[in-house]
Amino acid sequence: MVNSAVFLLFLGFTQCHFWKIGGVALELPKHATKCLSEDIHAHSIVLGDYSVLFDEHIDELPTVSAKITSPYGNTLHDTKNVSHGQFAFTTTEGGHYVFCFWQEFNPRGVKLSVNMDLRTGVAAKDWDSIAKKEKIEGVELELRKLEFQVQAIHDNLIHLRNKEDKMREVSEGTNARVAWLGIMSLGVCMGASMVQVWNLKKFFRRKRLI
Fold it and tell me: Which pTM was predicted?
């Protein structure tokens, strides 16, 4: 019973993670760039849209600029002087993708925010098109969604295991370097002590104290 509850809890957590639908509001400073980093797997579909938010009523709409870069610094989306926009791309490498926004036009100096809605992985699939193309609906469609979700969970577990292996390799390498550094430090201390003892003996013999 406990194992079933733990599994359901884990399934619920992964469902929230892989069906990533939601908005993130970023408050933009006047003369600075605000960025958001998201860890995304390789070969994942990424869809999103963003829009400028402000409280005051003004005639001229403020605008922002947006830039999205990959973990290796490649520019995937670069738009300037817009009040809203959309982006879509498929990742080629896994890692942290950076979404940056900054103010471009704000003559009244009002307080600006950007609301970004980001969807990745399973949540980015167009299930209406899939249902029409494969002529499925109802329970069959829900089972197909669960199938994609289980595959996403499996891929995420493999990704986490690979990251764990890399972290373990780094940790073992660091421990080995620290151990060798300790041995070298001990050797240097012992050598310095022997030199000091030899110098003291030489000094005492010169003074004929021993």
Answer: 0.64
